[in-house]
Write a structure and sequence with these properties.
Blueprint: E1 5-6, H1 14-18, E2 20-21, E3 32-35, H2 48-66, E4 70-75, H3 81-94, E5 98-104, H4 107-117, E6 121-125, E7 134-142, E8 145-146, H5 149-161, E9 171-173, H6 177-186, E10 195-200, H7 206-217, E11 219-224, H8 242-255, E12 259-263, E13 270-273, E14 279-280, H9 282-296, E15 301-305, H10 316-320, E16 324-328, H11 332-341, E17 346-348, E18 354-356, H12 367-381, H13 385-390, E19 396-397, E20 401-404, H14 407-427, E21 436-440, E22 445-449, E23 454-459, E24 465-472, H15 476-491
Parallel strand pairs: 1-2, 4-5, 4-6, 5-9, 10-11, 10-12, 15-16, 15-17
Antiparallel strand pairs: 3-7, 6-7, 7-8, 12-13, 13-14, 17-18, 19-24, 20-24, 21-22, 22-23, 23-24
Helix pairs in contact: 2-3, 2-5, 6-7
Length: 509
């Protein structure tokens, strides 16, 4: 009965070792993530035996679905990640696949290792930017390709069915993937001018790897919270958390640097603070980078996610260079797939996932590579980031706001809200002083107003929550009103809980 899956297994009991805990809600749109059962969280959703079963299932997926026999495995820096990675490896070996273990790594280091070793399957033990206590997997089914919804569902079916492949698997420890990864990012393209940079890692995995890469690129790096500490004592390393960005801004002003950069827990998302210490939402910085790329490679596509600024859709530089903007659902697997499908020069998510395609990258998201490209753009232009941002049309944006909503409720609630905004469109009901012009439903509902302001409600792909964003080209007050409208409408349903952060009301209100 040791490997029979249970939905509840008591912590600190014989059952914890003798039974397997895996709850269904961890199989999400393009990742798998659970709260680990621990002393601090005895009602967790997965235990180490669960990772053995996940390894058996992914090994079966690799053999039967992909037709492959080798997997690259890595893990992030959390108190429990190494042990869970070892449990995963046991399951993979049991299933008869060979394992190349790169150990402690960033997610993009795993993707790089796949390319370097020409291994199509990969498994990264990480909860990305989720708070401590979370764990999970990012699963690769090809070079620069991670499982999407269909792949995750097939993986889930294999887990639940329990009919796993078996056979002898081999183990190999790859000792120094970082040196090759670091050399590849710099690749003879060092900065012409030395740049002073604040680099914040929130005590997460990137603190081990990012500083030496940027130093080799030609930066004077001021490290902030780059010493690894799995308790994350200062900030959860999430570039969408305003408190994390503001801490970087404070350090940037203190040290008088040209730019501040924050990197998330597994190294695939970037946050940016300009030379004045002002936090900048990454989609606007991404637009500047997209312009820079478009001028070098005109006629290519650019992919953005549904949370990104509306400025992409009307940008004159992108239009002049024949760069088509393609909007897709939020999620690293979705954007990564779209970049490949449309042969885009790059893809950008507002959360800070940036994907550089050939000749600038290999199509996967990498915050260290993103930082290097951003620094090269600034180095070539000789213009400060704050000045470049001032050249963009002004809009006022909310932070990305999350509100608790149970996994078994959130999608139905988004569908309900979509219906409400469809009614508002038909009835021409005003919101924040204007009416809805059209709805974008590629991921949740983005209601776009007649004056190009907009609001968004979507279900989080990796947590029991909804995600809210608003933007106005007219005023901070209007953006705030749109956000408050969304929140009041959601709260009236009685189906949402606490918010992770809020938009500050304008001083004039």
């Amino acid at each position: 009965m040791r490997w029979q899956i249970q939905s509840k297994v008591p912590y600190n009991s014989a059952d914890y070792f003798e039974k397997t805990l895996i709850t269904d809600n961890g199989f999400r749109e393009y990742d798998v993530r659970w709260r680990l059962s621990t002393k601090a969280n005895p009602n967790g959703e997965i235990n180490p035996n669960g990772f053995v079963v996940l390894g058996r299932a992914f090994g079966t997926y690799v053999r039967e679905v992909m037709g492959e026999r080798k997997v690259v495995v890595g893990h992030d820096f959390r108190e429990y990640s190494q042990n869970l990675s070892r449990s995963l490896v046991v399951g993979l070996l049991w299933s008869g696949v060979d394992v190349v273990d790169i150990g402690l790594a960033l997610s993009p280091m795993l993707y790089f290792a796949q390319h370097r070793l020409n291994v199509k399957a990969g498994a990264m033990v990480t909860a990305s930017h989720n708070e401590n206590g979370w764990t999970g997997l990012k699963l690769a089914d090809g070079l620069s390709s991670t499982l999407g919804p269909e792949g995750i569902q097939r993986f889930k079916e294999i887990v639940k069915k329990g009919d796993f492949s078996t056979g002898p698997g081999g183990y190999e420890s790859y000792e120094d993937i970082f040196s090759a990864y670091a050399d590849d990012i710099v690749a003879g393209k060092k900065l012409k001018h030395v740049v002073d940079v604040v680099l914040a890692a929130g005590n997460g995995t990137a603190g081990r790897f990012a500083p030496p890469v940027l130093e080799n690129l030609g930066c004077n790096v001021v490290p902030i919270d780059c010493d690894l500490d799995w308790d994350f004592p200062h900030h959860n390393p999430n570039p969408e958390d305003v408190s994390f960005l503001r801490s970087i801004g404070k350090a940037a002003r203190t040290h008088d640097v040209k730019i501040g950069i924050g990197i998330d827990g597994d190294g695939d998302r970037i946050g940016v603070v300009d030379d004045t210490g002002q936090e900048v939402y990454s989609d606007k910085v991404a637009l500047l980078v997209a312009r820079w790329l478009a001028r070098q490679t005109p006629g290519r596509n650019v992919v953005i996610d549904v949370k990104s600024t509306g400025l992409f859709l009307s940008d004159p530089v992108l239009q002049e260079t024949g760069t088509k903007v393609i909007m897709v659902a939020t999620g690293h697997s979705y954007v990564k797939a779209a970049v490949a499908k449309h042969q885009a020069i790059a893809g950008f998510e507002r959360s800070g996932h940036w994907f550089f395609n050939a000749p600038f990258g290999r199509g996967y998201d990498d915050a260290v590579q993103s930082a290097a490209q951003l620094l090269r753009m600034l180095d070539e232009s000789g213009v400060s980031l704050s000045k470049m941002l001032k050249e963009l049309p002004r809009t006022w944006q909310s932070p990305t706001i999350g509100v608790v909503c149970p996994d078994d409720v959130k999608y139905a609630l988004v569908a309900e809200m979509t219906g409400r905004y469809e009614s508002d469109l038909k009835s021409r009901t005003p919101i924040a002083g204007t009416c809805i012009n059209n709805l974008i439903d590629v991921n949740g509902v983005r209601f776009v107003m007649e004056d190009n302001s907009w609001g968004l409600i979507r279900a989080s792909s990796n947590k029991p929550s909804l995600v809210l964003v608003a933007e106005s080209p007219n005023s901070e007050s209007q953006a705030y009103q749109i956000m408050m409208h969304i929140q009041h409408r959601l709260e009236a349903t009685g189906k949402v809980g606490e918010y992770d952060q809020q938009m500050s009301p304008p001083a004039a209100m």
